[in-house]
């Protein structure tokens, strides 16, 4: 499954500031069972908006991480909170099947 959220960088700050915190938190989160990686993407034409994507084996694995993660993750998130606004987009299942041209 994918967990997506939008990050808006507040004026006077940079995406790189947030990316630094993102990497530190992601390194800890990725140690949890079922974590399959994270991505942070900048919106075309709006460099102060980012799309964060976390991939998991299942929603249950992500929920388990949320329920029992290291307090250092919360500290990192709190350290970035003053210069960003985070809006959850949602949790998405992997598709049952994918149709790709040429296959």
From TrEMBL:
Write out the GO MF terms: monooxygenase activity
Name the InterPro entries for this protein: ABM_dom, Dimeric_a/b-barrel
Query: Which residues belong to any copy of the ABM domain?
Result: 5-68
Task: Work out whether the entry's keyword set contains Oxidoreductase.
Answer: yes
UniProt-recorded name of the protein? Antibiotic biosynthesis monooxygenase
- Which SUPFAM superfamilies does the record associate with it? Dimeric alpha+beta barrel
Which domain of life, per UniProt?
Bacteria
Q: Which organism is it from?
A: Microbulbifer flavimaris
Write out the entry's keywords from A to Z.
Answer: Monooxygenase, Oxidoreductase
């Amino acid at each position: 499954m994918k967990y997506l959220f939008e990050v808006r960088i507040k004026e006077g700050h940079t995406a790189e500031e947030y990316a630094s915190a993102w990497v530190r938190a992601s390194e800890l989160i990725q140690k949890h069972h079922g974590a399959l990686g994270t991505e942070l993407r900048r919106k075309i034409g709006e460099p102060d908006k980012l799309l964060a994507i976390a991939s998991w084996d299942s929603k249950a694995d992500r929920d388990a991480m949320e329920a029992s993660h290291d307090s250092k993750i919360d500290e990192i998130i709190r350290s970035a909170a003053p210069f960003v606004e985070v809006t959850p987009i949602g949790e998405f299942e992997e598709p049952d099947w994918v149709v790709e041209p040429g296959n």
